[in-house]
Design goal:
Blueprint lengths: L28 E3 L2 E3 L1 E4 L3 H5 L5 E4 L7 H10 L4 E4 L7 H14 L3 E4 L5 H10 L4 E5 L6 H7 L3 E4 L5 H11 L5 E4 L4 H10 L3 E4 L4 H14 L2
Parallel strand pairs: 3-4, 3-10, 4-5, 5-6, 6-7, 7-8, 8-9, 9-10
Antiparallel strand pairs: 1-2
Helix pairs in contact: 2-3, 3-4, 4-5, 6-7
């Protein structure tokens, strides 16, 4: 029987972003004593400040910059997993970015899928926060990633994500897996049931939210 959960939203914050409740069905991953089931995929500080995710995954398609991760960490009320490169930005630079992210207070560092195992190993030898490696294909050498020191997988395979998670889970029943849940409750549940421990959720953009708000204003004008 589901437990009744009293809730308070206030007046000014009652339109904050709320993640799909079905995400609560996953087990979560306990990191430094905190259980994380949902991660919002965003670098927009206004959205980060107004969303009920358990954590933030702050990766973006530019060379990672410490000033960006510092801004996000300073604004966020929840743990931040900071992207430190691995694609265009790799090698010694990614290692330095990982060290700086830890010093800034990041809960973990996220590396992109092209990251060489040697870079994972160098980062893991230095930092004392989880090293998260992104997986985009079922053909990834998971054992090699784990041997290099990766702590958590971040599966991002678009529509194929549930199948990739399921294949990984068959070989690694206790491995912590974060995975993209997709846009619907059905896609999120399929990913959870495939074996994901935590779900990343992409919230609507600032522009989309403003568009909806302006439509309401126009209707009432």
């Amino acid at each position: 029987m589901a437990k009744f959960v009293p809730a308070y939203t206030g007046t000014l914050r009652n339109h904050s972003l709320t993640l799909p409740t079905c995400i609560s069905e996953c087990s979560g991953i306990r990191i430094f004593g905190r259980r994380i089931k949902s991660l919002a995929f965003s670098t927009d500080v206004a959205i980060i400040k107004n969303i009920n995710a358990d954590a933030i995954i702050a990766v973006y398609p530019f060379t990672p910059q410490p000033v960006v991760s510092q801004a996000i960490i300073s604004v966020s009320d929840v743990p931040v997993f900071a992207g430190v490169g691995g694609g265009i930005t790799t090698g010694a630079r990614a290692v330095r970015l990982a060290v700086q992210a830890e010093h800034q207070g990041a809960y973990g560092v996220v590396l992109n899928s092209p990251t060489p195992n040697e870079v994972i190993r160098e980062i893991k030898d230095i930092v004392d926060i989880p090293v998260v490696i992104t997986v985009v294909s079922a053909h990834t050498d998971i054992r090699g990633r784990l041997a290099a020191g990766a702590d958590i997988l971040n599966v991002s395979g678009a529509a194929a994500t549930p199948e990739i998670v399921e294949e990984i889970r068959r070989d690694f029943p206790e491995l912590p897996i974060i995975a993209t849940g997709g846009p619907t409750e059905d896609s999120i549940l399929r990913t959870i049931r495939a074996g994901a421990n935590a779900i990343t959720y992409t919230p609507p953009s600032n522009g989309e939210l403003f568009s909806r708000l302006m439509e309401k204003y126009r209707e009432n004008a």
